[in-house]
Every structure is written in C-alpha cells, then in structure tokens.
Amino acid sequence: MPHRSSKPKPQNGGRKRKVPEVRREVSAGGLIWRRSAIADRIEVVLVRPTGKSTWVLPKGHVEQGETLLDAALREATEESGLMVTPGEQLGQVSYLYSWRDSTADQPIRIFKRVHFYLMECIGGDPSRHDHEVDEVCWIPLEEASSRASHKSERGLIVKARSILSKSSSAGN
Fold first, then answer.
1. Cα 121–Cα 124–Cα 130 angle in degrees, nearest 5
2. The CATH number, out of the four listed (3.90.79.10, 3.40.190.10, 2.60.40.790, 1.20.58.340), of the domain defined by the range 26-93+115-171
3. 20: pLDDT confidence band, cut at 50, 70 and 90?
4. Is 23 helix (H, G, I), strand (E, B) or coil?
5. Under the phi-then-psi rule, with left for phi > 0, alpha for psi from -120 to 50, and beta for the rest, what region is 154?
6. What is the 8-class DSSP label of residue 64?
7. What is the DSSP letter of 56?
8. Any idea where the domains of the chain sit in the sequence?
9. Model pLDDT, residue 106
C-alpha cells in the first residue's frame, strides 16, 4: 500500500506565497474642544484629510525623540490650525491597513496604534491648517459621534462627551 502524506496539497500550484512585510507605527492626536459662547454648548473639531471624504480626529506620526503628548499637540495644531492646551489622555485605538509605495510593489501591512488626548482650544485659525487636511470643522459634541467616519474614533468622542459633561457640571 502506498504511503500518503497527511499534508494537503498547496492551492497555488506549489509556489510559495511571499509573506507580506509588517510594520508597526505609533501616532498621536487629539480631540480638540471649546465651549461655544453663542449656544453655550461644547463643540469639537473634525478634519477631512486631503483627497478623502472621511471625517477624523487630527493625528499623525510621532517623530524621533518626541513624547506622545508632544506629538499629539504638534499634530493637532498642524492639522487644525488651532492652538491647544493638553488635557487628560482620552484613550488609544489600533488598526491594521495595507499600503503600497507603488502599484508594482508588494503590499505592506501596517499595524498602527494611535494615542489620543483631550485638548482645549485656546486660539488659532482653522484656515491655517496644513496641506494634509482639506477642511476643518467645528461640530456640536452631541453630533460629532455620528459625523466621525471611524467607529473607534466615535467611541473616543462618546468617552469625551462623558468626561466633558462631568467637568462642565462640576464647574457650574
């Protein structure tokens, strides 16, 4: 009786699949807020990245030698055009995406972790945002979670609403 291997035959004709490169990235950003004097309500910033239809919290890469908080403050200011002061750490989100430097390249899988902080707006001009953003928008906090494009960021907005409403009622 012939010996049979217990290994299944490869579906790709015996060719070895190239394992995609995996990179890890760390970014930081902020949920920028202000109390609107007109309606006595809290508003938050969402940005629309250049060439995209998504609305997100401002964030970006942590540069060499930079702390998470320093990167979050820098990125929030660059992407929103606003001056901010840091508050408490809001939380972090993680996600995986693929990237190609060109269509001929193999995709690279990127595991990204983003650390977010609450940040109060203390001035600035949203029209002075950087080239990575097409639009900066102030949105009432109650509406922001339905406007944000990513579920993980919607969760952070809900958490911020809880934190800010507690601090708002404590200040009254």
1. 105
2. 3.90.79.10
3. confident
4. strand
5. alpha
6. T
7. B
8. 26-93+115-171
9. 84
